[in-house]
């Protein structure tokens, strides 16, 4: 005989157990959801550990776009001096966003853009499997991961509080670069090279008659320049490394026809301005 059957369970206890069972059943999805929310997303270091860099482009390949990007520095210095004279070092992201967007040069003429498109088309003929792999990796990690990783590498050498502040500042730099470059791109409506010539990127599946995505100025270039300007002020001895990685990213955007040269130079000028602004308002 099953002894459990012989026990007379109090009705109140039975009711209580029933309510508890229902409650657990109701809460289970929420508990699972809450637990999932506690799972930490992989940071920049982990992402790159999981996807280590392939062989990147040679110094000779990236030299030309590197020089063109570096030429924006003098223009930026003159422009930012105007901002600083009028606003000092007080943070005003809203006013700066409007002002910085106005400093981006007007898009090139149709004839100039056609000539730049031809350069991308010629470069596309030289693509290799290794080059495509490098460009894909740089496109993926060049927006944020690489710059966050560079900063993380230095964090062990400084006080934790300072590291937290600098991490927040770099995040602000990257966010502002994306925000302003996206605003200008939406205003100027310059189709990306692979939109003008879909054969450059069959994987994008551009529909006939499509106008976007827009590529002027380059968001990759803006974020890279902003990060390099900021990071180089923190660690001047590593500025060469930062600039080399910036040039790698910029070249990759031409290599895979995400941008033409004027997209890159305009984005670089914008990013340099943003980096200068963050350094000024944060007291560096």
Characteristic key phrases:
284 residues, mainly alpha
Overview of this structure, please?
The protein is mostly helical. 71% of the residues lie in helices and 0% in strands. The chain contains 14 helices and no strands. The protein has helices spanning 3-6, 11-37, 44-50, 59-70, 72-87, 93-103, 110-124, 129-141, 145-155, 160-188, 193-196, 219-234, 239-255, 261-281. Helix 9 packs antiparallel against helix 10 (160-188) and helix 10 (160-188) packs across helix 14 (261-281). It is globular.
In short:
By secondary structure, the protein is mainly α.
Strand content: under 5%
Total number of strands: 0
CA distance, first residue to last residue: 83 Å
Low-confidence stretches: 1-24, 31-36
The major sheet is characterized as: none
Order of helices and strands: HHHHHHHHHHHHHH
Structural class: mainly alpha
Write the layout of secondary structure elements.
Blueprint: H1 3-6, H2 11-37, H3 44-50, H4 59-70, H5 72-87, H6 93-103, H7 110-124, H8 129-141, H9 145-155, H10 160-188, H11 193-196, H12 219-234, H13 239-255, H14 261-281
Helix pairs in contact: 3-9, 4-13, 4-14, 5-14, 6-10, 6-14, 8-13, 9-10, 10-12, 10-14, 12-13, 12-14
């Amino acid at each position: 005989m099953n002894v459990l059957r012989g026990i007379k369970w109090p009705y109140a206890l039975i009711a209580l157990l029933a309510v508890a069972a229902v409650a657990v059943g109701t809460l289970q999805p929420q508990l699972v959801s809450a637990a999932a929310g506690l799972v930490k997303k992989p940071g920049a270091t982990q992402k790159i550990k999981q996807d280590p860099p392939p062989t990147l482009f040679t110094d000779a390949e990236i030299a030309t776009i590197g020089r063109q990007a570096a030429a924006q520095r003098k223009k930026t210095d003159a422009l930012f001096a105007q901002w600083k004279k009028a606003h000092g070092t007080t943070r005003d992201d809203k006013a700066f966003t409007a002002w910085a967007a106005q400093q981006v040069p007007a898009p090139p003429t149709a004839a100039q853009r056609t000539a730049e498109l031809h350069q991308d088309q010629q470069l596309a003929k030289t693509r290799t499997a290794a080059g495509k792999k490098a460009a894909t990796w740089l496109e993926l990690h060049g927006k944020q991961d690489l710059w966050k990783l560079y900063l993380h590498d230095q964090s062990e050498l400084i006080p934790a509080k300072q590291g937290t502040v600098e991490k927040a500042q770099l995040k602000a730099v990257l966010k502002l670069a994306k925000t302003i470059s996206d605003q200008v791109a939406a205003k100027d409506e310059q189709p990306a090279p692979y939109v003008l010539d879909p054969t450059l990127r069959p994987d994008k599946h551009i529909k006939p008659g499509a106008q976007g995505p827009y590529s002027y100025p380059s968001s990759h270039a803006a974020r890279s320049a902003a990060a390099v300007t900021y990071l180089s002020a923190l660690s001047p001895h590593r500025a060469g490394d930062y600039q080399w990685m910036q040039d790698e990213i910029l070249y990759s955007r031409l290599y895979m026809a995400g941008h033409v040269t004027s997209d890159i130079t305009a984005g670089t000028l914008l990013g340099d301005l943003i980096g200068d602004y963050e350094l000024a308002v944060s007291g560096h």
